[in-house]
Amino acid sequence: MLAPTSDVAYQAIPQAPPATPLDPSDESDVELSESLHLARSASSTSPDVVDSRIRWLHVIFGCAVLLPWNILLTATPYFISNLDGSSYQRSFTSYLSSGFMTANFCFLAHATIISKKHSPSRQTFLTLVGLACLTFLLTMSTFMRLSPTPFFVFVMVNAICQSALGSYLQTSVIAVASLFGPAALQSLMVGQAAVAVAINVVHLISVWGFVQRDSTTENVDRSPAGESRGAENQSAFVFFALSTIFLVVAAAAQLWLASLPVYKTVAAPLERVKEVDDDPLLFHGHHGAHSNRNRILRVARANTVYEVAVAYVFVVTLAVFPPITILVESTSPSTHPLLFSAAHFLMFGVGDLVGRYLCSFPRFLVWSDRRLLALSLARTLFIPLFLLCNVQGHDNALIRSDIAFMIILFAFSVSNGHVSSCCMMASSSLQHNPRLTAEEDVDVAATVASFFLVGGLAVGSIASFVVRGVACSCNPFVQ
């Protein structure tokens, strides 16, 4: 899954002198610059061994960052089956995505502002432990039979809490990855897609197994609701439990990473800030906070095109996936709806992973902010394409082919992974982004771009209500 060393020949820390002199009065900037120069020297002594471990650890952290959202997304059929007959069932996917992404956006704003005030290693570990606890609660929910309203409240509260913890996890791991260079960021992005594929493979296999067992077992509830609920509850337990175990493993991996000498050197600028902030006189100092805010605003203005591009990628994605794509039905009567739904989630995950992996090869990289913006805007064309598919058996659907739908979905997901990864890598690259003026801007650029990415997710989830309304107007049978 990771790029060969020969294909991604990046330095751990980009070697480019600051374009603007540092303010001698700002001691944190001076210390940050000195630490970055030390990091370059340390990382160059053993690039092969260190880089391999760091890349794989960032794949694990990339998985952990998007694991909460993928858990909730993949479990959508399970949630819907337990909301059968309630008013929440029809628009649950839009409620879930908008609630999760809006909370993610708000908490990420706070996490971005305070990103320089907390130890990233400690923050990463604590958030991973918290996410493991919340996922364990979802695992236990498969043994409970709640009425629709309490179940809906439980799922939404759990989702918002996972979103909050995920926001702080995201800022800490992206800030550290940016210091190791674009190769580590690419590994992080690959991990985010890999976790979706892994979960969806487990989900597809478990759904297939339970559907096959239910179809051959006597004295079971043969109604659609009963069959769906039985299969989905049991399959949901499997990937909820596995996800809990993975998060515990990721927390252990973070403890190991923090103990590595290369981490202590490369991440020293971020860890050292926490040590300085422990001094009450410096923690409440106006100059340090003002300097940090100014740096964030300056970098955000300089990278506006990259930020708009990565945000719009996910506006389009969340506008139709999964609120609209999950409504597309198979044209084959022999295909079980649950299997078709699981296969469609897996197809998106595979395509997204392929798109992110393409960034491992220089020929597929796009560094220009304007080209990336054009590619991002062009993805708008996928929205009408999905509306033309077999949405809940629409008799007038122009695209009535399962293969055609899957091809469109695959192209949609490849573009999602490729364009978003290029935006994240280019926005924080001193070599390819002339708008960054100093090495101290690298982690800030990555964190701000991540903030806009989540902003795009939030806007896209809200836009899904509009797109769903268009689908209903075109097809009165859409619920």
UniProtKB/TrEMBL annotation:
Q: Where is this region: Disordered?
A: 1-28
Topology term for the membrane: Multi-pass membrane protein
Where, subcellularly, is it found? Membrane
Family annotation (SUPFAM superfamilies):
MFS general substrate transporter
Q: Which Pfam families match?
A: Nucleoside_tran
Example of a GO MF term: nicotinamide riboside transmembrane transporter activity
Per the UniProt record, which residue ranges are transmembrane?
56-80, 92-113, 125-146, 152-181, 193-211, 236-257, 305-326, 338-359, 371-391, 403-423, 444-467
* Keywords for the protein's UniProt record, in alphabetical order: Membrane, Transmembrane, Transmembrane helix, Transport
InterPro entries the record matches: Eqnu_transpt, MFS_trans_sf
**Which Gene Ontology terms of cellular component type are present?**
fungal-type vacuole membrane; plasma membrane
Q: What is stated as this protein's family in its record? A: Belongs to the SLC29A/ENT transporter (TC 2.A.57) family.
Q: Any idea what this protein is called?
A: Nucleoside transporter
